[in-house]
UniProtKB/TrEMBL annotation:
It comes from Micromonospora inaquosa. The keyword Transmembrane helix applies. It comes from the Bacteria. This is Uncharacterized protein. Keywords: Membrane, Transmembrane, Transmembrane helix. The chain crosses the membrane at residues 76-102, 122-141, 148-168, 174-192, 204-223, 235-254, 261-278, 298-319.
């Protein structure tokens, strides 16, 4: 007697329905053609009694669906750009974390007129220590371990401000936390099997910035240029610009080899780079109050940067999709109406 397979046993079950809901990530035509096969494959692998897709299966389905959509747009370079952007984001976060930890958090809290949090100026030290740990994890435990650590780093970045507010402890300002959270979100796409360069880049940048910070402090000879977060907006804007410029430069180099993933990565990181300079941009447009922009001015500038970044990405996708459709139509117009093969003959001049 034939035993029913797991997919047959789960047919019509809540688990099957939940897998089918995840198929929204795929284009509608692909769902209709391959949906049953995809769901059946996943149901064949689940253990008895499971009622929800595992996080791994859910992320796998959503990622595959988005890649299929990008394939339909002719924008597979964007799918390849996410790991590149994630590596650049983590490297930048590791560098920023090393700088803030050494140049700000270990400084005398009296410079910032704050009550100390142990040996640190603010609870932000927890965030920076967390991102330095993520950078170290990227070098020794790449893949799922690093992505899990990055998710924890992002969670720390998001939860420290409300914890600081509830406990009455000082925390980093929003002009520091918002770009850090944007970069942290990008790190969730870290590659599963990074190369040696991608693994070594985050700890290398953190180490380089740490060495430069120590040398700078020694050169100051007791001076205090960076005494609090309030003394760093200009440097943050420079860091965002440098990150974008380096990624764009790499992208242009790859584009010469017919690889547009680097240019897509630069486009993905344009918004976090802009957020690094939001404080300075707000002061330039709206003026300053008490040494910085007003909350309303900063919120307006930040919202504008987010909208412009999203619009640029949408426009680039739309342009790539239109170009892809034009090329497809040209290929189909040249196809033989009988056999469907594209003619390779050229018209004599």
């Amino acid at each position: 007697m034939n035993q029913p397979n797991p997919a047959q046993e789960q047919a019509g079950s809540p688990l099957e329905s939940r897998y089918r809901r995840l198929l929204w990530a795929y284009p509608s035509g692909y769902q209709a053609e391959r949906g049953d096969e995809i769901v059946g494959t996943y149901l064949d692998t689940v253990e008895p009694g499971r009622r929800w897709p595992s996080p791994h299966d859910a992320l796998d389905l959503l990622g595959a669906g988005m890649r299929e959509r990008l394939r339909a747009y002719g924008a597979l370079g964007l799918a390849a750009a996410f790991p590149l952007a994630a590596t650049a984001a983590l490297s930048t976060l590791a560098a920023v974390a090393a700088f803030f930890l050494l140049q700000v958090e270990f400084e005398d809290p009296r410079f910032a007129r704050l009550d100390p949090v142990g040996p640190f100026q603010t609870l932000g030290a927890v965030i920076w220590l967390g991102w330095l740990l993520v950078g170290l994890t990227a070098a020794v435990l790449p893949g799922s371990w690093t992505r899990t650590a990055a998710a924890c780093g992002l969670l720390l970045t998001i939860t420290v401000p409300p914890v600081a507010a509830l406990t009455g402890q000082p925390g980093p300002p929003l002009f520091v936390l918002i770009p850090a959270a944007a970069l942290g979100l990008a790190t969730l796409a870290l590659p599963s099997h990074p190369g040696r360069a991608a693994r070594s880049l985050p700890p290398l940048t953190a180490g380089s910035v740490a060495a430069a910070s120590v040398a700078f402090s020694a050169a100051e000879n007791g001076g205090n240029m960076f005494t609090s977060y309030g003394s760093t907006p200009e440097l943050l804007a420079m860091a965002g610009g440098l990150m974008f410029a380096l990624v764009l430069l790499v992208g242009l180099g790859r584009a010469l080899r017919a690889d547009d993933a680097g240019l897509w990565a630069a486009l993905l990181l344009a918004t976090p780079a802009g957020l690094f300079g939001a404080n300075q941009l707000s002061q330039g447009i709206w003026g300053s109050q008490g040494g910085g922009p007003s909350s309303a001015a900063y919120a307006t500038t930040t919202g504008t940067i987010l909208l412009v970044g999203a619009a640029l990405l949408a426009a680039a996708l739309a342009g790539q999709a239109a170009r892809h459709q034009t090329v497809r139509r040209q290929v189909l117009d040249k196809a033989c109406p009988t056999c469907g093969h594209r003619s390779t003959a050229t018209t004599p001049t």
